Amino acid sequence: MHEMSIAAAVVEQVDTAAREHGAPAVARVRLRVGELAGVVPEALDFCFELACTGTLVEGAALDTEPVAARARCAPCGVEWAVGMPPDLACPDCRRGSGVELLSGRELQILDVQWAGPSGAPAEQKG
Ligand SMILES: [Zn+2]
C-alpha cells in the first residue's frame, strides 16, 4: 500500500529526529500533503498508527494539511487549480506544453511537536 510506505518513512524520520533531540516522545506530527500525492488521509492515519508502534512516535497525533494542486502555463502566464483528476491542459490555449506544476505533489513534514516526560507538550522546536 502506498500510504504504508509513506507512513513508515515519516515515522522513521520523526523517530530519528526525536532521538537526536533527546525527546522522550512525540506529541504531534504535521504533514503537508499535496492533492496529487495520491494519499488518502484516512488510510495514512491508519498506517501511521501501525507504523509508529514501538517507536518514540507511538501515540502521536497526525495532522495532515492538504495542499491544492495548481499549474501555470508559461506562454500564457495563466494559473489554475488542477483539480482531481488533474487537468494539465491550459484553460487558455488548451495545450499541455509549457505547463508547469506549481504545487500539489508535496509530501513533507511541516513540523513536529515533542512531548515532555510527563506526556505534556514540551517547547516546540522547528
Ligand atoms: Zn496557455
Automatic annotation (TrEMBL):
Record's keyword annotation contains Metal-binding = yes
Note the coiled coil stretches, chain numbering. none
What are the protein's UniProt keywords? Answer: Metal-binding, Nickel, Zinc
Pfam families the record matches:
HypA
| Residues that bind Ni(2+) | 2
Classification via InterPro entries: HypA/HybF
Decide whether keyword Metal-binding is in the record: yes
Q: Which domain of life is it from?
A: Bacteria
| Positions of Zn(2+) binding | 73, 76, 90, 93
Sequence similarity: Belongs to the HypA/HybF family.
Task: Report the NCBIfam families cross-referenced here.
Answer: hypA (TIGR00100)
Q: Describe the function of this protein.
A: Involved in the maturation of [NiFe] hydrogenases. Required for nickel insertion into the metal center of the hydrogenase.
Record protein name field: Hydrogenase maturation factor HypA
User: Could you read off the lineage of the organism from its UniProt record?
Assistant: Bacteria, Bacillati, Actinomycetota, Actinomycetes, Kitasatosporales
